[in-house]
User: Fold these one by one.
Assistant:
Number 1:
Amino acid sequence: MRVWIDQDLCTGDGLCVDHCPDVFVQLEDGIAYVAEAGQVLNDPGGSQSLAAVVPRHHHSVIQAAEVCPGECIFIEIDTPEVIAPGPDDDLHEVHAVSGDDSAAA
Ligand code: SF4
C-alpha cells in the first residue's frame, strides 16, 4: 500500500496525524504531508510523493482517509507482479489438424 495527499485540498485540521503520526505529518505551513521511514515527503508533495505504508499502519491509514474532511488522502494498493509470456513462449500456439493424411502416403 502507498499513500499520498493532495495538499491543494488539505484543510489542515490534523485528523490524519491523530490517526497515524508515523505516516502523516503537519509542517509549519499547516498542511499535511506523508512520511516514509521518518522522512517527510514534501518535495514536491502531491501525487509525486507517494509513501510506502508498512502493514501495521494499513488500518489507521485507511481510517484517516475515511475521516479526512478534505477527501484528499489517496491510497494506492500494490498489485502482484504479472509475468507476461515472452516472445519464445508458445502459450497460444494453435496446431491445425486437417484430417487430410494424403501427404503422408
Ligand atoms: S485529515 Fe485530510 S484535510 Fe485534515 S490535515 Fe489530514 S490530509 Fe489535511
Number 2:
Amino acid sequence: MAQSGEGSPPAKRARLTFGETIEVLVGAGKRSFTVHKDVICSRSSFLKAACEQWMKERKPVELLDDEPHVFDLWLQCVYLQKPPAVENHAVTFELLYGTYILSDKLGDLRSANLVIDEIVRLNDKAKKLPSIEADALAWSGTPANSRLRVLLVDYFVLELNASTFESCISMMPVDMVVAIAKKFRFLKENNEHRKGKEVYWKRVSSQPKCHYHQHDDSHPSCAKSE
Ligand SMILES: [Zn+2]
C-alpha cells in the first residue's frame, strides 16, 4: 500500500503510444489478453517490471491467481478511465471489490481510487451493504492497511443499525470484528472529548474526497492532479 504523496511534486505522465502490444495470461486456465504495452506498463512499478521482462524475453505477464473477468474489469478502468458499470446489484459490489483488490495488488492506485469512489457512490445510492459474505471475502483478500478495510469498518460503524450488525457478526473474520470495535472505541473517546458529534454523524459519502484514496509520487493527490 502506498503512503501519502502530500508535499511531493506531481509526477509527469509519460506520453503513451499504441503501436506495441503485450500478452497477459490470467487465471488458472491462463486466459490470454492482448493489451497495449504502454497503457498497462505505465500503471505501476510491478507492471513496468513485467513489461521489461516481455521486452527482453517475450515472456507473457502472468497473473495466474487472478480472475479473468476481474482483470477484464480492471482493463475497463485503465482504458476508459472510469469504474466498471455492472448491471446486477448483487454482483456489483463483489466485482467492484475484486477490481479494487486487483488494482491495489498491481499498484495501480488511479484505478483503485476510481473503484473505491464507485463503491461509496453505490452504497450511498442503495443505502445498504451488498452482503456480509462479499464484505467478509473482501476483508480476507486485503492487507491490514487496506483503504477498503477502512471503508468496510466505516460502513459498519457509521451506517448500520445494531440489529443489522448483530446479524452479520457471526460471519465476520475475527480481526474485522476487532477493527470495528476499535473504531467504536475511538469514536467513544472522541465523543467524551466533545468531538463526537463531528465524527459520529459524518456518513461514509460525506468524508473528504481523498479519505479512502491512496496516493504516492506517481499518483499525486486529487487536488494536485486536477
Ligand atoms: Zn484522492
